[in-house]
Amino acid sequence: MISSLMLAALSLMVSPPAAPAVADPEAPRPNLVVIFTDDLGYGDLSCYGHPTIATPHLDRMAAEGQRWTQFYVGASVCTPSRTALMTGRLPIRSGMCSSQRRVLFPDSAGGLPASEITLAEALKDLGYATGMVGKWHLGHLPEYLPTNHGFDSYFGIPYSNDMDRLASSPEGRVAITEPEIEYFNVPLLQDTEILERPADQRTLTRRYTEQSVRFIRAQAEGNQPFFLYLAHTMPHVPLFRSEEFVDVSRRGLYGDVVEEIDWSVGQILDTIRVLGIAEETLVVFTSDNGPWLTYDQQGGSAGLLRNGKGSTWEGGMREPFLAWWPGTVPAGQVVPDLGATMDLLPTAVLLAGGEPPSDRVLDGVDLRPALLGTGPSPRDSMFYYRGTELYAVRLGPFKAHFITQEPYGRDTNRIEHDPPLLFHLEHDPSERFDISADHPEVLAAIQSLADEHRGSVEPVPNQLEPRIAAD
Predict the structure, then answer these.
(1) Which of these, 445, 464, 326, lies nearest to 388 by C-alpha position?
(2) Which fold has domain 30-379?
(3) Which runs of consecutive H residues, i.e. helices, occur in 112-244?
(4) Are 5 and 445 in contact (CB under 8 A)?
(5) DSSP states of 372-409 as a string?
(6) What is the DSSP letter of 359?
(7) Marked catalytic residue, from 57, 78, 232, 236
(8) What are the pLDDT digits (tens) for 307-338?
(9) Which of 50, 137, 149, 232 is catalytic?
(10) Which CATH architecture is the domain 383-455 placed in?
């Protein structure tokens, strides 16, 4: 197995990237719904093994579609992860990551550059109606909002729900762990206008769902293919849920919040079924990064994976991923292949009959073979960034850690490893047993892949570090 892995790695190093698959002019042009949660852990759904959080709608989605077990995001915190989803590119390529300011803040002057091609822009060019509902976090100034990045409409909050904290709120963690909506002056936007400030966070999941259902109905009535990006604010702390979901979960407040998201997924899927467009609609569900473990019981669980949000251990960047497309995506299939949110852009564009952008480096690959059950995923590697530094690389089942560091909020001691730590993730998904001494040839192949990757990264202006000038 290792000899085959080495040959594959060497072929990657000496061969040019494969050209995009030629799109079928008779492509099915499915509607696309991407449901993205915030800080949900790998172990937080009952279909991924949680014993006390009930997620019947997501469980049904998995039973009627695919459940992936080795699916990744582009970063372990919000802004860079969402950049990877929207662009099909690692955030280092667009300046949307930083080792100083890990995400965008209300005083940030930057955002997703206009030069980037988003999934919304690519599908809009192919005749799709595009709508975004929920948390954006790719720039709050007007030029960076969703309606300037390919979305026809936007309803949601521009950044994380714990931002814009008022000075009059309680000091320390109390405002987060015992929150009131008045503690956070987060705006709720319709396109570029503020509808409500502070947003009533108790109602966000419900209102996001209602807005999404309206969008789906409107496009179905107009018989136009559509792309809906529904990015839930929760279960990022501070945790809020509607009155109907107070104390419904055995898992407490965190479970209540996740179970309301599960209800929301049920509403979306039921709407699609009732409208008779299920066989024309691909729905995927995942999250932006792992659980915020430093918030104890108000944070989630990465299950058997190590660590969580903010780290490059598996718990920070491996996420639940469900895919549902009745009649096309095989029902009840568990997919152990590698996949990533960056793969959604090229995959969706090809399904829609287009071609992925060819004028820039794309880090996403075409997942159609694995998604449609016709072959394996072509993804065989993954790059794990913390800020602007490459901390780890996965090749096949092996993962090498060049640098390890605990997430913010805990011991942040940064350790460089020489030789790198090495784990076999299919034998040891919890990253407990370092096997670097046994496989120097694997480390050599991964090091060569890392060097090749670093050589493909061109310097660009950083978007997270500039701040709005004070008055």
Answers:
(1) 464
(2) Alkaline Phosphatase, subunit A (3.40.720)
(3) 119-124, 174-177, 204-222
(4) yes
(5) HTSS--S--EEEEEETTEEEEEEETTEEEEEEEEPPTT
(6) S
(7) 78
(8) 999 999 999 999 999 999 999 999 999 999 99
(9) 137
(10) 2-Layer Sandwich (3.30)
